[in-house]
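Format notes (please read before filing issues)

Several people have asked whether sequences and structure tokens are stored in separate files. They are not. Every record keeps both together, in the order shown below: the sequence lines, then the token lines. Line labels are part of the format and must not be stripped during preprocessing.
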Amino acid sequence: MSPQSSISRPLAPSTSPAPDRTLPAVSIGLVVAICLVAANLRTSLTGVGTLLPAIENGSGLTASWGGLLSTLPLLTFAATSPLVARASHRFGSARLLVAALGALTVGTAVRSLPSVICLFAGTVILSAAIAFGNVLLPALIRRSVPAHRIQGVSALYITVMGVTAAVSSGISAPLSHTLPGSWHTALAWGVAFSVAAFFVWLPRMRGDKPQAGDGVTRSPVPWRSGLAWQVSMFMGLQSLAFYTAVAWLPSILIHHGTSGTTAGWMLFYYQLMSLASGSLLPLFTRGRHDQRWTAAGGSVVLAAGFVVLLSAPGLSVVACTLLGLGTGVCLVLALTFQSQRAGSAGEVAALAGMAQSIGYLVAASGPLLLGILHDATNSWTLPLVVLVGLCVAMAGAGYGAGRDRLVRYSAR
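Then the structure lines:
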């Protein structure tokens, strides 16, 4: 008997995985460990944007190479994510996470060395390590956290991820002016989080047996599941909207007469609203497994933000409020679906690997596509119209992904 195609089945009490009913309450130690991993998932990436002018000036990189440096992590995520489920099955999730945290520390250090080759090589290493963390963390949460706590814990780690990302964006440039080594040193400050997470997770490797050694069948990637594709496309489109906004929102506002300083503060406000909505979402959806209208509604709010930015750019506060509210809701749901729509930790790793591989490949195209459209039309009108259309498509994917169902595997 071998796994065939993945199908969607209704989620009923009788089909809920038994381990969820016997899991103990979430310990403070586990929450701290999860949050430390979350602190590493964006910190090493978001500071690059503010340092990019200094990096280009100091290393002689052209703007095109600087753009590649910004896109390289997303491409690495897309290439690496499908490998995580197989590796997790062979080595164990906690062991693999510790190895990824060690690789993240090494990659961050290599990236900060005074060499263009090290700059790109370190970026690939740390991005691959982050990709492993992106996939493993939902699987570990699914295995260690009771079902009714998954969304709350997911929202917490997403909040930590967002806060540390915002802090990294804000302090990287000042650190480059005050620390010896300029931008090289500023690129390496996040290593403190990876070292701390490494030592916190090191004791948690005890008892983490590889699934292959327990006779557990590895879950294949559910390429044939419609539900898995809806989860993946929802992940991809919300990531595209976020990374595109981070890359181009200040430029759009400046194009319409906003000062550079104000545009920077509006980007900060956008991220603040995203954190707020993501943190509050579990309070309004507690105990609700059907998230169809929540996912579709968040996508529509995000689309409305782009519509305001397109039709009334002077109302930038309104636009950024809507964009932030929609982004926070969609991000929490996109990551939560990867845990809720699978029946076991192994299936979570397989689904998360698929969702994040496709998702980051889609996301990588967003900033580049908008830049090409803007250069071709010398206007932000067509790029924003395209974003509105993509948000409408995201609403459809979210409505499907939000159904109270599980991705299952049938046997021949």
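For reference, the curators noted about this record: The CA atoms of residues 359 and 367 lie 14 Å apart. The longest strand covers residues 3-10.
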